[in-house]
Design goal:
It contains 14 helices and 19 strands. By secondary structure, it is an alpha/beta fold. The strands form four sheets. It has a seven-stranded mixed beta sheet with strand order 6-5-14-15-16-13-17. The structure holds flavin-adenine dinucleotide (FAD).
């Protein structure tokens, strides 16, 4: 590596910024982070969108590489599967994985953010709060910053800038002005609202702790993830317009009525439902695709800034953290040859981030609708049975994405082949005993090659 003491400017101290900073300082760089919000450790602000997040293998790998996973273990709750709540309050449990090790982890977004910022600062990263990036000269790297406390603008010189500034990235906004910059954004017709289920007596969870709870209702749903303080962070997903939509929920009584009729077992658990509902904003969900992600070895987009996805596979931050892993590996290979590193980074990641973007949209239908269908649950059982018999050949799509580091593009492609196989095997069958194993054997051996496992 040539320029050991080179200074890298990161925009955004959300989740990816501080994690990337940790990897960069470990490799001898100086890192300055500019963040538009105040420091959430001293000012009570919303940690951003969802209250808690589901962390899985890709995210855990990146945190382990940064030496942070052991610390995070203190603030996570393993979730073993989905707990489905029907409209008549029946409960069905569906495990996520093939064994107890295949779980996902609920973590508070704010706690994760704070832990990463603390760790980064401990390693010498400087985080400048209330410094909004308002632009960048992509020819020189000069960054324009506004001090949000006093409204003063200033320009700083920076050799390398990495935009970790989320789905509405200011750095991407500047790239958009360049010729031949490809950009698309696709909003869902659905919005989301964060709600809370308070802790019960003695700070205990009032629902099963080790599960992600879902109230699937066809074209909308409520989900709840456990927090270590006994509360659940909930998200209500509804269409913006039409029947059973946010547009219909203008009064407290309309909110209560919807919950009474569609989520009857949730309503006694949410005493502050209406207040909660009107105190929190209604969020929008967008898929952003763009390219190129870099300009002249001087500026790069990473995380949501490069590829925001909808939240239904629980992969946004896992994917962003995998970006960090990939970028740091390339730096180890090529040193500070930024042009090459940025270019190989995009080449390695873009095909995979496009794939997880598509998988995430597809998973919305699965979560809000199909999980309530007994045929779907049967297919899930068959998937696990096939995996048990052919562990190198047949790994369920959910597992490829969540419990392995198999490239997302591979998971998407194999998942499509496996979906067709499952349709062929399950459509005329009601019980596991009736599954045609010789047909399964033939299909699997002829259509799937052994998987290179990356756990
Ligand atoms: C409802 C919902 C649920 C989700 N659930 C999950 C989940 O379960 N699992 C999962 O893996 N992912 C989940 N995600 C996705 C995850 O939240 C994002 O992928 C992740 O936050 C992206 O991290 P980031 O650091 O790239 O961007 P962000 O977390 O958005 O951070 C960007 C930072 O940049 C700062 N910033 C923005 N503009 C500027 C500027 N001009 N100047 C200076 N600073 C700026 C912001 O203040 C912020 O701190 C969910 C998302 C949503 C919306």
């Amino acid at each position: 590596m040539t320029a050991k003491a080179e200074t890298i400017s990161l925009i955004g101290a959300g989740l990816n910024g501080p994690l990337l900073a940790l990897g960069l300082v470990k490799r001898g760089f100086n890192v300055e982070i500019y963040e538009r919000r105040p420091d959430m450790r001293s000012v009570r602000i919303s940690a951003g969108r969802s209250i808690n997040l589901a962390l899985s293998t890709r995210g855990i790998h990146a945190l382990s590489e940064a030496g942070q996973w052991n610390e995070m273990r203190k603030i996570i709750i393993p979730m073993k599967g989905r707990m489905m709540h029907s409209v008549t309050s029946e409960i069905t449990f569906q495990p996520y994985g093939k064994n107890e090790a295949e779980v996902i982890h609920s973590i508070s977004r704010a706690e994760l953010n704070i832990a990463l910022m603390n760790a980064a600062e401990d390693q010498g990263v400087r985080i400048h709060f209330q410094q909004r990036c308002t632009g960048i000269d992509l020819k020189t790297g000069a960054l324009q910053l506004r001090d949000e406390r006093i409204g003063e603008e200033r320009t700083i010189e920076s050799r390398v800038v990495i935009g970790c500034d989320g789905s509405a990235s200011a750095i991407r906004g500047e790239m958009l002005k360049l010729s031949r910059f490809n950009f698309s954004q696709q909003y869902l017709d659905y919005g989301y609202k964060e709600l809370t289920i308070p802790a019960g007596p003695g700070g205990k969870h009032v629902l099963e702790t080790h599960a992600l709870h879902i109230w699937p209702r066809g074209n909308f749903m409520l989900i709840a993830l456990p927090n270590v303080d006994g509360t659940f962070g909930c998200i209500l997903f509804l269409p913006f317009e039409g029947a059973d939509s946010f547009a219909q929920l203008a009064t407290a009584s309309a909110v209560i009525k919807l919950f009474q009729s569609r989520f009857p077992d949730a309503i006694p658990l949410m005493p502050d439902l209406a207040d909660n509902f009107f105190a929190n904003p209604t969020g929008a969900m967008v898929t952003v695709k763009c390219s190129p992600w870099h300009v002249d070895g001087r500026a790069l987009l990473l995380g949501d800034a490069a590829h925001a996805i909808v939240p239904f596979f629980g992969q946004g931050i896992n994917c962003g953290f995998e970006d960090c892993t990939c970028l740091l590996e390339l730096l180890d290979q090529h040193g500070a040859d930024w042009r090459r590193v940025f270019s190989e980074f995009e080449e390695a990641r873009k095909v995979n981030t496009d794939a997880i973007a598509d998988l995430a949209v597809e998973n919305f239908v699965e979560m809000r609708d199909r999980v309530a269908d007994p045929r779907f649950l049967f297919r899930k059982k068959v998937e696990l049975a096939l995996e048990a018999k052919y562990p190198q050949l047949f790994v369920p799509k959910y597992a490829m994405v969540t419990f392995h580091r198999i490239p997302y593009a591979t998971a998407l492609k194999r998942g499509q082949v496996q979906d067709r196989m499952l349709t062929e095997l399950c459509d005329s069958v009601e019980r596991m005993e009736d599954l045609d194993w010789s047909k399964a054997d033939r299909l699997i051996r002829s259509q799937l090659t052994p998987l290179e496992m990356v756990s």
